[in-house]
């Protein structure tokens, strides 16, 4: 089995080192193509307005001056001799649950693999707090990911689905359950911009999260993280809201309206 690894934390991230060890438990044909610098929060962004540079760091290791999506596109189309059998994206420093998945570069790397018809999995390791001094329990992802991935690969996946794995902020011995979950949603008011002033008196802004404690519904990825369970969520990119389709067909369809009623 040929594996392609990518991430959004960058080619030198500790989480990518953890992912290499996870991949090594599954195959000895492992390729790495990751951003040269951190690309967190870039979602499915692609680089259109400047050239992409590729730095070959080893026989099967490449750093790209672009996003996770760029990395997967280049690896599959140009850098690898054959299309991989599996794309693994991560292990992200911090979980990707709830609405995080819509702007996560980690999930985006997996989505691009899916777009190429390759089974793809995003992996993220939750943190107690998102601060530089907090050390992620990557050993937890390393302990459980290989067996979980093996079981997932034994199953038949629906077209257009990626698997989103999140590991709780606990050491391996404190994790006792894995749960198949659905995507949850936080209070979107958590996100805000902090205004500050530079040394020349000019305002600038820093995106931030308030991180208020919330109660999340049972069965969601958010609740699993709160309670220390491994979360496995099948995601797909179809954003169509089908109930609204049915409602709108009652008022729109046929010849376009020409005047406001």
Walk me through this protein's architecture.
This protein is of the alpha/beta class. It contains six helices and eleven strands. It has helices spanning 14-24, 68-79, 105-115, 138-153, 221-226, 242-248; strands at 2-6, 29-35, 54-58, 61-64, 86-93, 119-125, 161-167, 178-180, 191-197, 203-209, 230-236. The longest helix has 16 residues, at 138-153. The chain is globular. The protein starts with a strand and ends in a 13-residue tail after the last helix. The model has no long low-confidence stretch (mean pLDDT 94).
From the structure above, extract its key features.
single chain; 261 residues; alpha/beta; nine-stranded mixed sheet; two-stranded antiparallel sheet; 6 helices; 26% strand; globular
In the predicted model, the low-confidence regions spanning at least 5 consecutive residues are: none
What string, H for helix and E for strand, traces the elements in order?
EHEEEHEHEHEEEEHEH
Strand content range: 25-35%
Helical stretch count?
Answer: 6
How widely separated are the two ends? 61 Å
Helix content: 10-25%
What is the tally of beta strands?
11
Large-scale geometry: globular
Average pLDDT over all residues: 94
Q: Structural class per helix/strand content?
A: alpha/beta
Write the layout of secondary structure elements.
Blueprint: E1 2-6, H1 14-24, E2 29-35, E3 54-58, E4 61-64, H2 68-79, E5 86-93, H3 105-115, E6 119-125, H4 138-153, E7 161-167, E8 178-180, E9 191-197, E10 203-209, H5 221-226, E11 230-236, H6 242-248
Parallel strand pairs: 1-2, 1-5, 2-4, 5-6, 6-7, 8-11
Antiparallel strand pairs: 3-4, 7-11, 9-10
Helix pairs in contact: 1-4, 2-3
């Amino acid at each position: 089995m040929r594996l392609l690894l990518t991430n959004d934390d960058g080619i030198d991230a500790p989480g990518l080192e953890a992912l290499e060890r996870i991949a090594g438990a599954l195959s000895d044909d492992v390729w790495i193509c990751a951003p040269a610098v951190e690309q967190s929060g870039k979602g499915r962004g692609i680089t259109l307005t400047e050239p992409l540079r590729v730095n070959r760091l080893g026989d099967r290791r490449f750093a790209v001056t672009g996003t996770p999506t760029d990395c997967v596109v280049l690896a599959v189309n140009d850098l690898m001799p054959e299309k991989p059998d599996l794309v693994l994206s991560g292990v992200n420093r911090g979980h990707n649950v709830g609405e995080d998945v819509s702007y996560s570069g980690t999930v985006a790397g997996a989505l691009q693999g899916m777009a190429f018809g390759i089974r793809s999995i995003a992996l993220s390791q939750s943190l107690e707090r998102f601060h530089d001094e907090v050390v992620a329990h990557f050993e937890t992802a390393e302990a459980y990911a290989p067996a979980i991935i093996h079981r997932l690969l034994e199953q038949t996946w629906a077209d257009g689905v990626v698997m989103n794995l999140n590991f709780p902020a606990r050491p391996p011995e404190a994790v006792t359950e894995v749960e198949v979950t659905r995507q949850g949603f936080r209070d979107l008011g958590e996100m805000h911009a902090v205004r500050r002033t530079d040394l020349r008196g000019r305002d600038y802004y820093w995106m931030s999260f308030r991180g208020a404690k919330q109660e999340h519904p049972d069965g969601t990825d958010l609740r699993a993280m709160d309670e220390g369970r491994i979360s496995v969520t099948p995601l797909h990119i179809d954003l169509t809201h089908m109930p609204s389709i049915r409602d709108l067909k009652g008022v729109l369809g046929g010849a376009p309206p020409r005047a406001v009623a």
